[in-house]
Amino acid sequence: MRLHVGCAMWTHARWPGRFVPEQLPPGERLRSYATLCDAVEGNTTFYATPTRSTVESWARQTAPGFRFVVKLPKAVTHERRLTGTEEDLRSFLDAIEPLGPRCHALWVQLPGSFGPGDLGVLAAFLRRLPRSYRFAVEVRHRAFFEEERSERLLERVLAAVDAEWVPFDTTAFFRERPTSDAERDAWAKKPRVPRRTRALTAHPIVRYLGRDAEAATVEGWRPWVDTVTDWLREGRSPTFFLHTPDNADAPGLARAFHDAVRARLPALAPLPEPEPITPMTLF
């Protein structure tokens, strides 16, 4: 029984000295992060396909059981909207191939304008993806959350290829007005859709956005502790990604979420032991 938890990135300006050692070289940062969390969102691949050598470095720094949920490039999902993408997709899949079993899922994040009328395009695209990968789809069009027919049609498309629906739960974040610059920035950018807790596959993936205040973040994730506990009891293997607007405390919060679930399920496999953080010395 295993719950994977992680963050939106593996390096952050406010983590050294708190969660990871100071002055780590770039080639060691993912390795250090992997002693805190056992999953990470592959958001950087949305903006540019990495070189194969870069991905080989990612693989060297992580154990085979580490989970990358790798976002497809925006040229595929947002610019070409899943059509005429063969060359871009081929280059992307070749680049990430060194991850091997660490590539937990290909993450198809779709723009808010991608609605029920586009489901035929999504179905055709998913059928073309190689079956050696799992697929996870994130939609942001409100019709999929508010119209039962649209929800069921999307679920049917995903079920045909055993793909998961990735919820991005921002309900706790939008409960109160922003109080910091980071929260104000997220307020303008993050999607406002209802919370969805229905898993379609044995490997559900959750993205949760809390607040910069720890207490509000913890209060907001309480329904997910219940849901994730139920999934584990059903024999599912979930992945939970913890976001806050500034992400300054994200690794610690991700581990705290894992602790909250493990308090319900003591048989749950523990997270890795964090790498010791030794203070800097003059000699």
Automatic annotation (TrEMBL):
InterPro entries: DUF72 (IPR002763), UPF0759_sf (IPR036520). It comes from Nonomuraea phyllanthi. Pfam families: DUF72. It comes from the Bacteria. PANTHER family: UNCHARACTERIZED PROTEIN YECE (PTHR30348), UPF0759 PROTEIN YECE (PTHR30348:SF9). This is DUF72 domain-containing protein.
